[in-house]
Amino acid sequence: MQRIVIVGGGAGGLALATQLGKRLGKKKLADITLVDAARTHVWKPLLHQLAAGSFDTHAEEIEYLAQARWNHFKFRLGSLTGIDRSNKTVQLAASHDDKGREITPAQSLNYDTLVIAVGSQTNDFGTPGAAEHTIKLDSPQAAKHFNERLINACIRAQTVPRAEGSGLLTVTIVGGGATGVELAAELHAAARVLGNYGFENINPEKDLQIVLVEAGPRLLAQLPERLGHAAERELRKLAVDVYTNEKVVEVTEGSLKMASGKVIQSTLTVWAAGVKAADFLKTMGGSQTLEVNKLNQLVVNGNLQTSRDSSIYAFGDCAACQQADGSWVPPRAQSAYQQAMYLARELPSLMAGKPVKPFVYTDQGSLVSLSDYSSVGSLMGSLSQGSFFVEGQVAKLMYWALHKQHQLALGGIKKTALITLSEMIDRTHRPRIKLH
Which pLDDT value is given to residue 376? Predict the structure, then answer.
C-alpha cells in the first residue's frame, strides 16, 4: 500500500488529505498521514477577524483528529525538522505542552510520496526591532496573542486620562496588503462593539487610532489598481490614517521610524508586510537539500514535483511553480486550493508513473473584506478575458461564499449546512466580539 505523507494542515494540505482520504484511504488504496504542529485548523483568510476578536474560534476551528477519523486518513502531531531522501523518511520534532512537558517524542515517518504544504510566514526583511516589537499575523496563535494584547490595552486605557487631541490607544499595521487592509477595517468595527460591553471610553473615532503604513505607492499593490484605491477610500471614511510611500526602517516598543524621518507612536504594532517560506526549507535534507529560491520556496515543475526529487511534491505558499507563459503562481489561498484539487485528481496517476497534464493556475479574481462596512473585489470574466469590479453587499456575499467553498471541500454539503445554521444561532446569544 502506498504511503502518502502530507506535511502542513493549512487550507491546501487539509483539503488534499481529506480528498485523498475519500478517494484512496477509504478504499484501502493508500495509507495517508497528515502532519501539523497544531491540533486544529483555522482558515487563514479569517485571521484578521480572529485578531480583532470578531468571531468565535471554537466555531471555526477544525480538529485534525476528528477530520482524519471522518475522512479515512491519519493525523500526527509534530513539526517537520528533516528529510532523509535516501531512506524516504521524514523527521518530526517532539511536541510539548505549555508547561514544557513532552506530549509526543521526536519521531520518524516512512513515505513513498511526500507532499509539503507548510505555507508561508511574514517577512520582516530584517528591519531592526521588528522581530522583538511587532506581532506577525501569520498564524492563529499570533492572532489570538494580538487579541489578548488588544483587550488588555483597552482595559488599561479605561483608567488612563486622555491627553487633549491624542488617542488612548494606537494600533499600527505595517503592510497595505489584504491582511493589513482587512485588519484595519475589522479593528474599527471591533472598537464600535467594545463600547457596548463596558468600554465606554473606547470610541473608534476619538479614542482608538488605527494607522496603516505601506512602503509602496498604493494599497493592495498585487491586486488591480482600482481595488486598491477603493479600499483606501473606504478606510479613510473610517478615519484610518493611511500612509503610502513610507518605509519602516526601525521599530521600538512604542514607535516606528520611517525612512522619511517620520516617527509614529504606537501602542500595538502588527507586521503584515511581505511573505516568505520557512527558513528550514533551504537546509532541510542535509547534503541532499531540495532546490529553493530566494524566498525559501521549494522549486517545483508543472506537476508540483520538486526539481531534485520526483517523489516529493510541494504546493501553496511554500512552492515556486512557473507557468507555461513564464509567470509564477501567486502565493494566494485560491492558488493553494486549486493545487490541492489538482493533486487530489492526478496524484494516483503520478505515483503510477503515468503522464498527466501540468497544473494550470486560473485567476478567479480577488475579494477584500472591510468588516461590516463593505467589501471590494475584482472578478475575472471568462467571456471577455478581462475582469469586472464588484463592491458593497455583492462583494460581501461572494467573500462569504469563498469561506463556504472551503467548508464544503472539508466537510461536504450536510456538514456545511449544519455549520451555517449554528453560526446563525450563535449570533443570537454570543457577544459580537471576543472579550477574553
Answer: 54
